[in-house]
Amino acid sequence: MSKLPVMEIFGPTIQGEGMVIGQKTMFVRTAGCDYSCAWCDSAFTWDGTGKDSITQMEPEQIWDELKRLGGNGFSFVTISGGNPALLKNLDGLIKILKQNDIKVCLETQGSKWQDWFFQIDELTISPKPPSSGMLTNFEILDTILDNLKARTMNQNVSLKVVVFNDEDYLYAKKVHKRYPDIPIFLQVGNEDSRTTDDQVLISRLLDKYQWLIDKAMLDDDLQNIKVLPQLHTYVWGNKRGV
Amino acid sequence: MSKLPVMEIFGPTIQGEGMVIGQKTMFVRTAGCDYSCAWCDSAFTWDGTGKDSITQMEPEQIWDELKRLGGNGFSFVTISGGNPALLKNLDGLIKILKQNDIKVCLETQGSKWQDWFFQIDELTISPKPPSSGMLTNFEILDTILDNLKARTMNQNVSLKVVVFNDEDYLYAKKVHKRYPDIPIFLQVGNEDSRTTDDQVLISRLLDKYQWLIDKAMLDDDLQNIKVLPQLHTYVWGNKRGV
Ligand code: SF4
Ligand code: SF4
């Protein structure tokens, strides 16, 4: 018995951000985070407001639920949180997914290493910039990215930094400079993860996206980068579970 | 002397679509196309309206112009058209780019093979669906994708199909079924590549994007796909040269 705290399971939908943007995927969101970012868009996974939705599930149960929702229509599962890297026993779920030929995508802020990182097909490390209120432990981050040098050609690793302001932008540059060989994604921050006025939200997000593009395009320190929005907010606004 | 017909050179900007969406890149747009798609958004490259902008340029001149515009701020160049695969002598430009450690991205509809395809880092083959009014020669497409099986691990190849309607969608499925091992991108068609009302444009494009997502998510034949918009139209509307 090795249960996992599951917050929600949904899909199929598209991955709205990062290295596999646009990918058809199922989502498993785990509960719990060691951070408390000021602008966390999934604070319900750790701030107590969602605690009634947490279910302790065996990997087999999670797989059953994925099949019930997604049938035979998917080959990709994204594990998100919270911080799924808190869960040492996540390897049970990863194993079942692999046995069923499912590609696995996972995102974590890089505050903790797990040996099962090597089994993730598309691994995003997303250290949090100053606006989050969190402080990056670069020694741990160094260890994680150093360990990952032993990965196989089949595993993709990327960095992703959310940028809300100039200070965050400088932080993103610092991260890129420290790990120049890891593909890096700059992502526009969503300053208002609560509004339900989608029109206003999109127009603000697009302004912010253009601001970030303009900065990065003029910046010789950022030669090889990708700048992306969160596509799902364009399509579904701030709605959850899509 | 091996000059190339160049329509425009611009950047740095982001790649708005496909396999390297979000990538900081320079663009070189070549003139001429063997197709005449009904909804071509760069018809000025082949319909005569842009003929005064075509400059015959040596690869060295193109490189000089790229450096003049992009300085030391880029490491990625996208060659688009028209159909750049019409130009046998494009290898001269590719060679200079490679010598300068530039990654090269290129898109072609797949109507013609060139040996220099092997030198493209990120190659997109985008066969045109029925709404284009064009007819795909699947024998040629077979040959191209068969040849590309000899590519190295460093070269990425993808298929991209623009979808305007149900018939196009069925065509995309057919393409995916024929080449199941090649990553495929479905891209929302822009039905109005002339309007200057960006608000209306974005709202229409988002509706269409959601329509395409909804179809693909429910479709068991499309397990492993990516569904993407053209990000640049969200940010810049139908403006050219950005
Ligand atoms: S690390 Fe992620 S889940 Fe945790 S608080 Fe920050 S944004 Fe939220
Ligand atoms: S193949 Fe491309 S450039 Fe040529 S007509 Fe069609 S859309 Fe336009």
UniProtKB/TrEMBL annotation, chains A, B:
<feature type="binding site">
    <location>
        <position position="42"/>
    </location>
    <ligand>
        <name>Mg(2+)</name>
    </ligand>
</feature>
<keyword id="KW-0004">4Fe-4S</keyword>
<feature type="domain" description="Radical SAM core">
    <location>
        <begin position="20"/>
        <end position="238"/>
    </location>
</feature>
<keyword id="KW-0408">Iron</keyword>
<feature type="binding site">
    <location>
        <position position="33"/>
    </location>
    <ligand>
        <name>[4Fe-4S] cluster</name>
    </ligand>
</feature>
<comment type="subunit">
    <text>Homodimer.</text>
</comment>
<comment type="similarity">
    <text>Belongs to the radical SAM superfamily. 7-carboxy-7-deazaguanine synthase family.</text>
</comment>
<keyword id="KW-0460">Magnesium</keyword>
<dbReference type="InterPro" id="IPR024924">
    <property type="entry name" value="7-CO-7-deazaguanine_synth-like"/>
</dbReference>
<dbReference type="GO" id="GO:0000287">
    <property type="term" value="F:magnesium ion binding"/>
</dbReference>
<feature type="binding site">
    <location>
        <begin position="14"/>
        <end position="16"/>
    </location>
    <ligand>
        <name>substrate</name>
    </ligand>
</feature>
<keyword id="KW-0671">Queuosine biosynthesis</keyword>
<dbReference type="InterPro" id="IPR058240">
    <property type="entry name" value="rSAM_sf"/>
</dbReference>
<keyword id="KW-0456">Lyase</keyword>
<dbReference type="InterPro" id="IPR017742">
    <property type="entry name" value="Deazaguanine_synth"/>
</dbReference>
<feature type="binding site">
    <location>
        <position position="29"/>
    </location>
    <ligand>
        <name>substrate</name>
    </ligand>
</feature>
<feature type="binding site">
    <location>
        <position position="40"/>
    </location>
    <ligand>
        <name>[4Fe-4S] cluster</name>
    </ligand>
</feature>
<keyword id="KW-0949">S-adenosyl-L-methionine</keyword>
<keyword id="KW-0479">Metal-binding</keyword>
<dbReference type="Pfam" id="PF04055">
    <property type="entry name" value="Radical_SAM"/>
</dbReference>
<comment type="function">
    <text>Catalyzes the complex heterocyclic radical-mediated conversion of 6-carboxy-5,6,7,8-tetrahydropterin (CPH4) to 7-carboxy-7-deazaguanine (CDG), a step common to the biosynthetic pathways of all 7-deazapurine-containing compounds.</text>
</comment>
<dbReference type="GO" id="GO:0008616">
    <property type="term" value="P:tRNA queuosine(34) biosynthetic process"/>
</dbReference>
<dbReference type="GO" id="GO:0051539">
    <property type="term" value="F:4 iron, 4 sulfur cluster binding"/>
</dbReference>
<dbReference type="GO" id="GO:0016840">
    <property type="term" value="F:carbon-nitrogen lyase activity"/>
</dbReference>
<dbReference type="InterPro" id="IPR013785">
    <property type="entry name" value="Aldolase_TIM"/>
</dbReference>
<protein>
    <recommendedName>
        <fullName>7-carboxy-7-deazaguanine synthase</fullName>
        <ecNumber>4.3.99.3</ecNumber>
    </recommendedName>
</protein>
<feature type="binding site">
    <location>
        <begin position="126"/>
        <end position="128"/>
    </location>
    <ligand>
        <name>S-adenosyl-L-methionine</name>
    </ligand>
</feature>
<feature type="binding site">
    <location>
        <position position="37"/>
    </location>
    <ligand>
        <name>[4Fe-4S] cluster</name>
    </ligand>
</feature>
<feature type="binding site">
    <location>
        <position position="82"/>
    </location>
    <ligand>
        <name>S-adenosyl-L-methionine</name>
    </ligand>
</feature>
<feature type="binding site">
    <location>
        <position position="80"/>
    </location>
    <ligand>
        <name>substrate</name>
    </ligand>
</feature>
<dbReference type="GO" id="GO:1904047">
    <property type="term" value="F:S-adenosyl-L-methionine binding"/>
</dbReference>
<feature type="binding site">
    <location>
        <begin position="39"/>
        <end position="41"/>
    </location>
    <ligand>
        <name>S-adenosyl-L-methionine</name>
    </ligand>
</feature>
<dbReference type="InterPro" id="IPR007197">
    <property type="entry name" value="rSAM"/>
</dbReference>
<keyword id="KW-0411">Iron-sulfur</keyword>
<comment type="pathway">
    <text>Purine metabolism; 7-cyano-7-deazaguanine biosynthesis.</text>
</comment>
